[in-house]
Amino acid sequence: MDRLLTAGFRHNSRRLTRFARPQPSESLPAPDTARKYMLYLHVPFCTVLCPFCSFHRVCFEEHKALRYFKSLRQEIRMAHEAGYRFSDVYVGGGTPTVMPAELAETLGLLHKLSPIESISIETNPDDLRPEVMSQMRDAGVTRVSVGIQSLDDELLKQMDRYEKYGSAAEVIKRLEKAHGFFETLNADMIFNLPYQDERSLLRDIDLLTRQLEVSQVTFYPLMSAESTMRKMLKTMGEVDFDREGHMYRLILDALPDSYQPSSAWCFNRERGTVDEYIIENEEYLGLGSGAMSYLDGVLYSSTFSLNHYNRQVDGGRFGISRRQPLTRRDRLRYFMLMNLFGLSLDKAVAEKRYPGFFWKLAPEILGLKMMGAVRDEGDRLVLTEYGMRVWILIMREFFMAVSDFRDLMRHTIREELDAPGPLETRIPTPDLRPPGTH
User: Which option is the CATH number for 23-280: 1.10.357.10, 3.40.50.10580, 3.80.30.20, 1.10.287.3510?
Assistant: First the structure.
């Protein structure tokens, strides 16, 4: 069953993320001035390029990072001038804390421009130092997500993380010292690594939830672009997707009752920010090289070239270089996908957002019910435990398709550097018409 579902989800995910080339974007859509948006910022710099990672990242060089942060702050000002206002911020990477002072200055700018309510940042264990954490807390950060991946020394060595970020024992000490700095301290973990066995996985769960009692833990299935998978064979071995479901069930069974799911792969010990900003925010704006946005039914991607990104911003243009409009049906599917990833779909909200929602998606919803993936509780559809497993599979295929798209974007870096005007995105003139009159 998993293999059949994987084939179907893989086909659909790759269709959604197959950005036509060149398909430049002339502008971002004008914002709805009556609402506040989710903002995603991408900081692509890393001191270690982990072999399993497919995200947009480059080796850290101080002069490049300083130039980049300057451009990122300018792009934030441009979004503000275009009329966008933000309530929540998610900073991903790369390693956003690679230059803490620059990140703090960037977050300070956001606080001046928008009524920010929450800020979530990603980091690595070596940045869990009191001086860095204090600086982030003072900059308004409410959630820190630490990329741990595993607490097995042998697996850390295979991932090239042992020498840079320390042994499992050292990582545990840093996590202990990070307690109390933020509302939410999340531990990002990976399951179904090639040489990860049940004992190693269960030990990770025990250390994080019973010994350290972190406020939030996220278990991602291993998911990378096809090119990354091929490179991983040299150091990490081949991924066996057939055992993914078994390992996920181990996680669900081993977690203490005090940890409750907030998404199919995120578990909270106490109330905290959901790990995936795309769950609670149907639309979001992404700024920075390699960032993606979803606005007005269109997916946008920014250039992966740092030089092209800097050049765009210097010229008063956003870094956007690709766009992919979604069909009406795909927009409904995306809405259902993300809501059920957050464990439930409110029927009234769905119908208000998309009139005729349940009639138009009747075949998909019937299929989910027949599979036992969702149950109908009257006012909402709720993901079952089996449905959580199905959604892990769906999201794995979705993000792997996004990773394959990132590979495509990396291949177009030279093309974008040499391109004259057509790929450049100009600042949109704010559209002050009431929402719904476009």
Answer: 3.80.30.20
